[in-house]
Amino acid sequence: MKKSILLFVLAMTTMVAAHAQGPRIGIRAGVNYSGFGGSDADNLDRIWGGHGGLTANFPLSTDNFFSVQPELLFSMKGAETSNDQTKFKVNYLDVPVLGRVNAGPLYFEAGPQLSVRISGDVEQNGVNVIDDLDAFKRTSLGYAAGIGLAATPLGLNIGVRYNGDISKLYDDENAPNYRNDVFMLTLGYLFGGAR
Question: Which fold has domain 2-190?
């Protein structure tokens, strides 16, 4: 599965780079405020986590108005019961491929996202009771959308992003109807100055 994702990212990057002008590679990191959505998630609250990884931006127009932005991010997600007794912590590798509109210093982004669960645990009253979450699906499909500010000559950008899953967390139809539901505050830096 990991090889498939790596090949997918490589293929997307190569395809976009063939048509792009002035690709830039960078890093991204920030804070997650995550929870579980779904019809059975009413008694669950959000928890704090983080994200970090690689980002790239491939302009598809000479004025850089429209670009494609693939990313590979380690992302901490999860939720806790409203009485704080049980906490679900799930770590993913997220691969969003976002279309981005650059309107001056403002940018708007949206696109599909593939997530691969790499670890997770369940804590009860601060004690780890389950070391892995094999009952959760290994991969999930979702979407991401956001808005932000970019200082293009410096390569810096800061934004807010929402990402949610289309896929349920559990394969078992009798399990609760949970989906990942994440708000992100994210800071990015693209190497190389404005051209």
Answer: Porin (2.40.160)
